[in-house]
Input
Amino acid sequence: MKKKENMKKIVFCLCTLTFLAFLFSCMTGRAEKKPCSRAIYDCGIKSPEQLTAFFLAHKTAASKSDILRLSRLYVQEGADEHINSDIAFVQMCLETGFLSFGNLVTADMHNYCGLGAMDAEHPGESFATEQLGVRAHIQHLHAYATTADVSLKHELVDPRYSWPHKALFAASVYDLAGTWATDKDYGEKLNRLLTELDDF
Output
């Protein structure tokens, strides 16, 4: 009888320890969640599903399948050129008002970063497909974040790729203020969106 009771106690203790270890690992995992990098020439860490969830938290009426398709393009194209897809995606959200557009650039242009958009006579570049639009965006970030001797994996589709190499360099989102955009708070705006994305 004593043996049975002792065995029950041992099993109970082992189960309790296993449960506590599992609970601790879950809590530790949450506490050590890795934040998105603010470096442009870096790997993104968010999956297409996480990027989609972030987008839909801002624009609930958007088509989940459409956003997931776009998110997958950003993750793939970013990985191909070693450009941070997390940064590129939140920049797309900022530049397009979460795909609301409404300024010079329209949805059919597949221009997700305001590339070449200056005024009514220069409304911006147009691309035939979503993928080419995302690729041009990634390539333009590549032009800012690298030196001229770092080659592209894909054929060049960004018509404005060469000029940032002449005078501009942006290692992080903060360096895009005053270079990519005249807005001095541009880097902080991107940083705030990345901070939100950290939680997805």
Notes: The CA atoms of residues 81 and 153 lie 6 Å apart. The two ends are 53 Å apart (CA to CA). The chain has seven helices and no strands. Helices lie at 2-31, 48-58, 64-81, 85-96, 130-145, 164-167, 186-197.
